[in-house]
Amino acid sequence: MSAESTPPDWVPAGGGPEFATRVVGGVPQPAAPGAAAARARALDVPSLVAGIKAGERGALARGITLIESRSAAHRGAAERLLNVLMPFSGNAWRIGITGAPGAGKSTFIDTLGTRLCEAGRKVAVLSVDPSSPISHGSILGDKTRMECLSRQPGAFIRPSPSGGEIGGVARRTRETITLCEAAGFEIVLVETVGVGQSEVLVREMVDCFLLLMIAGAGDELQGIKKGIVELADILAVNKADGENCTRVEATRLEFERALHYFSIADEAWHPPVLACSSLSSEGVGEVWVQVERFMSHAELTGQFAERRHSQSLSWLSALLEQGLHEAFSSKREVVALRRALELEVVAGNVSAPYAARRLLEAAGLVMENNKPQ
Predict the structure, then answer these.
(1) What kind of fold does domain 37-84 have according to CATH?
(2) Is 189 helix (H, G, I), strand (E, B) or coil?
(3) CATH fold for the domain made of 89-300
(4) Would you say 363 and 331 are in contact if contact means Cβ atoms under 8 Å apart?
(5) pTM for the whole thing?
(6) Is 221 within 8 Å of 215 (Cβ atoms)?
């Protein structure tokens, strides 16, 4: 045993040889050959542009990592990358897939994406994994449930952490879609974290919104909130396997009847309710047929172009809100005042609206005529 090794801190004082575990000091190692060059290449925007346009997976992955970076040093390079690639994007179908946890979204995407790749289509999957509110970490395990799709040469799967963002999507999902389209992918599947009233944000960045459901989860119409159902273009009840087929069909009929009482976004399109099984692939093909039907309908009615315009404006609005929040939080005088006012609010000396107005005034975001008299 090396003289530099020591017992772990959990070994009791005077612990004998039965505590065989030892901690050995690390050995410094030189950087891997080419590591510095790889880091420099990641910020080489012209090389990234050329690689992404050529469909290189490594360049696409580095480009996504660049735009997902929260470092101020990377922001300029990310903007240049997006500006150059924008003219080469917009040619893919953007399909959002959401559903309650356990609905089988990843397995469904694995089955659907594999079928599309086998048919000669290039498919990009953007899966969003929930981040811990405590450690802020994410498991990013969705790709492991897409075993078949991950082996397809025409597929690209990118799991990203939600990073605490609401809406079931990651902080840079819109930008990632742009890069995948510029890389030549024909279909971009966006898998959300889960489903709920806040998950509707993904609806603002896709062309077709698919809601995946399961049977036997209690009161289905209460379990899946009305708002998300009204925004769905297609509904599918998953896990129609074996003895569960009867419950799935009952759930499908229940939702089909209930849709007549909902306010549907497009009166010319009545969302179909289907049954499918991701494990056996039964019904998955029919779900994609309905996606194709909806896309044809959207193009004929002009809804496709309208949604794309709305997506661009929503993207701009989201970036403005994010920029305002970052600018507000970066002002030193505002940060100091906020700490002081937070103590006053907690102590009950001032109200939260008063403190919020004081902070907005300090940041120069409140007009003189909006101040209380």
Answers:
(1) 1.20.5
(2) strand
(3) Rossmann fold (3.40.50)
(4) yes
(5) 0.78
(6) no
pLDDT in tens, the chain (373 residues): 445 677 777 777 777 766 667 777 666 666 555 555 555 455 789 999 999 999 999 999 999 999 888 887 888 999 999 999 999 999 999 999 988 878 889 899 999 999 999 999 999 999 876 544 344 444 445 556 788 998 999 999 998 765 545 544 556 888 999 999 999 999 999 988 765 545 667 888 899 999 998 887 654 444 455 667 888 899 999 999 888 899 999 989 988 888 877 766 667 898 999 999 999 999 999 999 999 999 999 999 999 999 999 989 988 888 888 888 888 888 888 888 999 999 999 999 999 999 999 998 888 876 555 555 5
Report how far residue 132's alpha carbon sits from residue 20's, in angstroms, rounded to the nearest whole number.
Answer: 35
The residue ranges of every structural domain in the chain are: 37-84, 89-300, 316-370
The burial of 206, by beta-carbon neighbours within 10 Å (0-12 exposed, 13-18 middle, 19 or more buried), is given as buried
* Beta strand extents in the chain (DSSP E only): 93-99, 123-129, 155-161, 187-191, 208-213, 234-237, 273-275
Terminal CA-CA length for the chain:
78
CA atoms of 276 and 286, how far apart (whole Å): 8
Contact 129, 141 (CB under 8 A): yes
Cα–Cα distance measured from residue 129 to residue 193, given in angstroms and rounded to the nearest whole number = 6
Burial of 74 (C-beta count, 10 Å sphere; 0-12/13-18/19+): middle
* Backbone torsions φ then ψ of 189, nearest 5 degrees: -100, 125
Give the CA radius of gyration of the chain.
25
Q: Are 352 and 358 in contact (CB under 8 A)?
A: no
| Residue among 167, 110, 173 at smallest CA distance from 144 | 110
Specify whether the CB–CB gap between 173 and 184 falls below 8 A. no
